[in-house]
Amino acid sequence: MQPAPAFLLHKRPYRETSALVELLTLHHGRVRAVAQGVQRPGSRSRGRLQPFAPLHVTWVGEGELKRLRLMEGRGSAALLAGEGLLCGLYANELLTRVLPVELPVPEVFAFYTAMLEVLPRPEGRAGALRRLEVAALEALDAWPRFTDPEGGELDPQRRYVLDPASRAFVAGEGGIDGRTLRLLARGDWAEPGLAGPAKAVTRAALAPLLGSRSLRSRELMRQLAQRRRAGSH
């Protein structure tokens, strides 16, 4: 096979000197593989196989678990720290959890690549994460329909909550008003005041895919926010 563009999503030790890795690849989506010898001291591949660093990889194997054959760097890793690093860890954990193995998701790969360029700058982080989440939801046919369950238009004056079973919105207390949902449906995510509702919609849509096990990266982000609030008092 030709070397495939890829990013490392997750890595954990395997046997004495190898690692089990989860990769996001351009043409094959999420790929699970064994990186043999990568944990050995002095291994050149060990330095290359880092989060947020663009790679070229090849692998062999017919089953779900592949064996990496070639792993080369194709650029420098994104320099992330603090909140930017936590956002990157969130993206990696999310894609590892929701993407099926070897489902081609080129749009997700494109938005992930673009996200890494934005995360060092605080003002672009939320938008980059939302675009990645939307790309993943659309690839999994799980993006909301922005209608009521019968396919009717949402009333701008009423408030709605997402019904995961139908992927439609039903009237409900504490939900999002129909006007805001209509803006989100058109893709007007940059409109003032839409950051919170956009996050609420993607989180509700992702919840059935994630199940009951919470994301560790979300908890870390919540702890960081709490420390910042405590430090400001």
From TrEMBL:
Database matches in InterPro entries: DNA_rep/recomb_RecO_N, NA-bd_OB-fold, RecO, RecO_C
Keywords for the protein's UniProt record, in alphabetical order: DNA damage, DNA recombination, DNA repair
Annotated signal peptide: none
Keyword DNA damage appears in the UniProt entry: yes
Pfam families membership: RecO_C, RecO_N
Domain DNA replication/recombination mediator RecO N-terminal positions: 4-72
Keyword set includes DNA repair: yes
Gene3D superfamilies, A to Z: Nucleic acid-binding proteins, Recombination protein O, C-terminal domain
Record-linked HAMAP family: RecO
Family: Belongs to the RecO family.
Role, per record: Involved in DNA repair and RecF pathway recombination.
Name assigned to this protein: DNA repair protein RecO
Organism, scientific name: Halomonas rhizosphaerae
Name of the gene this protein is made from: recO
